[in-house]
Amino acid sequence: MNSISMRPNVITVCLASACLLSGHVVGNERNTVENDRNTICYGDVGCFVKNNRIFTLDLFPESPEKIKTEFRLFTQKNGEDNMFQILNINDVTSITDSNFDHCRPTKIVVHGFRSSAQIPWMTTMKTELLKAGDFNVILVDWENGANYSYNQATVNTRVVGAVIAQMINLLKDQVEADPKDFHIIGHSIGAHICGYAGERIPNLGRITGLEPSALNYQYKDHVVRLDPTDAQFVDVIHTDGRSLLLFGLGMFEAVGHVDYYPNGGLVQPGCETYSIFSNNPACRHLRSHQYFIDSINSECQFIGYRCQSYRDFKNGDCIPCSDGGCGYMGFHADKAKPPEGSIQVTYFLETGASKPFCRYHYQVKVVCGNTPDWKKEKRASVINLIGTKGQSGEKPLTSSDMNIEPGKSYVFILTSINDLGTVHSAEVTWQQEKTTPLQIHIEKLEIGSGQLNEK
């Protein structure tokens, strides 16, 4: 190979068509590039192309030495909560002398743009994971590659993904860790890092994408972004899928085996008033990891309902659960997988505006009688569901501008912060205007629970 070496065994700018891309076929079947001056190689990490028909940013990713990806190992044996051990790719003893145990499942957590492993949500997730089970928890810190321009951070994700793959392969070779026992969890552009890592690791167990970034990724070739081929199971949570013109930061495109869209995946409760000018313009973007953290040790199951659209879900077309029609959003998503071979299965659910975010779902169907003296009413109402474990308290059933007509049926989705058990009755209160007599006849009131085990 003709090349220019900038640092021995570290950086090579290719001048012959011998450099390989990061595990993908780009340009032709031999993984070579049409213009070799657009390729850079970093020793064992591999070679990376810029400015071609797929990777369109005219930037090289920075070197592993500049990004300085760090792996911080936490286990239940580490003692104090914030004590960690550094796993070093270049020092095998850092692995063999650590508390890493190949018999435990391993959780790897990856942050996004302008962040680090010290950010509170990563620390909180680590703590909740270690409460939930005896795991190897590895927090990946790539702060040096994430704090430049967004476009530079975008291309750096490819190197970080390759370095994570190196670490997993090293753990496999040195201490017999099994790739199927690894679960990589990434937020924002960190979700795509998980994809780049997964494409290099055969039989990787699971990837969870928490609100994958849209800019530079959405509707691009699967080579560029997270996709279902990157692991045996890929689950994704979408919380800010609005257009970039409306300051949306996340993907709305389904990119996993299962994709969860809480509250429709666009606007989250408690974040409605946030904008680019607010104190927290990323409120919706951050909800994804907040939901995931909440799901780890929650008694409430974050049940998602398989549906074609959020409108169908709100219309009650997807409750109750039957025929594999539900899943768990978050940590426990792998406990309710769709049939093998399914990809881009979409689930919808509602959440609360603050912790705890999880809600129990109930479907209420109101069948109005067709009496001759009743034509139409415009009413608002509230309902109180009463079950074997408690009451929901008064919940809005209709909006003030909703017309209630004789002979028609109406379906509503209600949520409760508490599990009501088996709902056996309900109290409906209709708005009563003094000048207008109330003429509403309910012929039937049906209430269905949205529990996962309901058939």
UniProtKB/TrEMBL annotation:
<protein>
    <recommendedName>
        <fullName>PLAT domain-containing protein</fullName>
    </recommendedName>
</protein>
<dbReference type="Pfam" id="PF00151">
    <property type="entry name" value="Lipase"/>
</dbReference>
<feature type="binding site">
    <location>
        <position position="225"/>
    </location>
    <ligand>
        <name>Ca(2+)</name>
    </ligand>
</feature>
<keyword id="KW-0106">Calcium</keyword>
<feature type="binding site">
    <location>
        <position position="230"/>
    </location>
    <ligand>
        <name>Ca(2+)</name>
    </ligand>
</feature>
<dbReference type="InterPro" id="IPR036392">
    <property type="entry name" value="PLAT/LH2_dom_sf"/>
</dbReference>
<keyword id="KW-0732">Signal</keyword>
<dbReference type="InterPro" id="IPR013818">
    <property type="entry name" value="Lipase"/>
</dbReference>
<keyword id="KW-0479">Metal-binding</keyword>
<dbReference type="InterPro" id="IPR033906">
    <property type="entry name" value="Lipase_N"/>
</dbReference>
<feature type="domain" description="PLAT">
    <location>
        <begin position="360"/>
        <end position="455"/>
    </location>
</feature>
<comment type="similarity">
    <text>Belongs to the AB hydrolase superfamily. Lipase family.</text>
</comment>
<dbReference type="InterPro" id="IPR000734">
    <property type="entry name" value="TAG_lipase"/>
</dbReference>
<dbReference type="GO" id="GO:0005576">
    <property type="term" value="C:extracellular region"/>
</dbReference>
<dbReference type="InterPro" id="IPR029058">
    <property type="entry name" value="AB_hydrolase_fold"/>
</dbReference>
<feature type="signal peptide">
    <location>
        <begin position="1"/>
        <end position="27"/>
    </location>
</feature>
<feature type="binding site">
    <location>
        <position position="227"/>
    </location>
    <ligand>
        <name>Ca(2+)</name>
    </ligand>
</feature>
<keyword id="KW-0964">Secreted</keyword>
<dbReference type="InterPro" id="IPR001024">
    <property type="entry name" value="PLAT/LH2_dom"/>
</dbReference>
<dbReference type="InterPro" id="IPR016272">
    <property type="entry name" value="Lipase_LIPH"/>
</dbReference>
